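Duplicate of earlier report; Probable membrane transporter protein input re-posted below.
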Amino acid sequence: MNTMTLWHISGWGFAALASAALLVGFSKTAVSGANTVSLAIFAAVLPARASTGILLPVLIAGDVLAVLTYRRHAHWPTLWRLFPAVAAGVVVGTLFLMWADDGIVRTSIGAILLLMAGVTMWRRRTADAGEAPDQVTSRAGRAKARSYGVLGGFTTMVANAGGPVMSMYLLSAGFRKLGFLGTSAFFFLIVNVSKVPFSAGLGLIDGRSLLLDAALAVFVVPGALFGKWAVNRINQRLFEQLVIAATIVGGVQLLVR
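Output:
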């Protein structure tokens, strides 16, 4: 019995999931935040709860490819400052999921994403220049890292939607294109791998889901390769505009679902 039969997926449904996997690869090596569209596709084709567990290994496959591509560009001081706050956000997200239904979760995350996109655009219009990455050592930089870290942990726990949050943080901190991609690659590889035991414990990852993941992971690779090709042809300003646009699209689709 093949994986499509196991999950009662039609040919069109599998094609949609494959397209979403392609987009995951592209987002990991080019326009971070675009994979919020993949999240919506997975939730539309598969049972909503199961879709989060199936999507997670696909995201990790993209994270591995992104780390291999941009590992020399990561800014580790930023990562170390983010992780404690992210852990706190994961705890908050877990508590939130204990009482919130799907509608409240989607609305909350969508509103957060749109708010942060608006704040980022406002800051970039009013500031002469963004902060350099090494300015995260300042008091304001540490406070910003903590607030975005908590939000990132919260959104990645409840909906695998931490990408746009971190995108807004890294843009607001003044990261250039390659530093942005390298730092986010390591961040999400570590965070997503740490979520695997919890997802498995909840029954969201099992043998059936991994069979489907194996079939979909094949499509992540060409997406990542295309992203690597495309990012070298995108200037910094367009890159930032695409990241913000992807965040807005992700926020809107969460609100209207």
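The chain has one domain: 3-256.

Merging into the original ticket.
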